[in-house]
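Entry for the shared binder. Reason: the reviewer on the internal report wants the predicted structure included alongside the sequence.
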Amino acid sequence: MTVKEFLTAVQKGAITTSVGGQMSAQDADAFINLVKENNPMYGSEVRVIPMSSSEKKIEIIDLASRIMRGGVEGVAPSDTFSPTISQRSLAWKEVILPYDVTFDFLEENIEAQSADALLQGMFSTQFGNDQLDLSINGDESLAETITDTTPADGSDDTTGLTQNDHTFLRINDGWVKKLKADGVSHTAVLSDSTTRDYKGIIFPALIDNLPEKYQRDLSKLSFFVNPAMERAYRRQLSARETALADAILTEGRRVRFEGIDIVPMPGWPSLAPVLTAKLNLAVGIGRQVRVGRQIQERKRLIEYTITAKTDAEYAVGDQISYTVLTT
C-alpha cells in the first residue's frame, strides 16, 4: 500500500489501527538494493549479502604457495595439496528502526505524490547508515547502563560515550572489535604510536605488515580510515608544490597511497586505521524484513517501524592489517 492509498483509507475511516507486515521476497530484495544504492560504501567497498536463514557462511578458497612440482613421465607426484577453505559465519540479530511521520508532512507531500518515494529513501538511507555504524563500532560488552559520576555530563566515566551510544552499540559486535580479537589478523606495531605521518610511517607500516601474497595487486586493497585522517593525509600531500597536490586539495578527488584507495568511512575509529581487500568486509541483511505502520490519531502522526535481521563480519582475517594509534 502506498502512502497515498494509506492516507485515503485513513480519511475514509477504513483504517483505524495499523497496516504492515512482512515484505515479500521481491520487496525485501528491493529494500536491500535501495539500502545499497543510498550508501556509496555498500557494493564498492563493503559487501552486502542477502540472507535467507539465520546463519550464512562466507567461504573463501585459498591455495598455498610453492606447490608446483617437477613432472616425471609415468610417475605420480608424491606430494598432493588441498585448498584451504576459510569459513566465517554471518549470524543475524534483530534490529528495529522506529520512525514517526506527522500527518502534516504527508498531507503537504501527497499532492506531488512524492511522499512514498521520499519516505522509502529516508528509511533505507538511515537504516544503511546505522547498520554501517554498528558494523564498524558495535561492542556487545559495553555496559547496559552508563556510569556517570565525575562530572555528571551525560557520558560514561570509562568509555566517554552517552547512554544512547551504549544502547545502540550493544546490539552486535562490529568489525573493529572482531579483528582486534582475531588471532589471524595482523597488528602493525609502530615505534611511535603518536605519530601522524601517514605517508612516511602509518600507511607503509600497514602494507608491510600484510602477507606478501596479498601485496601482488595493491589496487585490490583499501585503507579504511576516519574522515579526519583522510583529510589530514590529503593536506599532507597538498603541502607539496605540484599541480597534482593542488588538484588533490581543490578538486576533492579520491586520494591513494601506492595505488591503494584511502577510503574515508564515517564513524570509523580515528585511532584504528585498517588495510584490507575491497569487499572483504561484509554485512548480512535477512530477507525477513517487516514494515509496520501504526496510526496515532491524538498525536497526528503515523509510527513507521522497520524490523530487520543483520550481522557484520569479514571473510578473511589473514587479509587484514591494522594498527592502534595513541591519542
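Summary line for the report: The radius of gyration is 24 Å.
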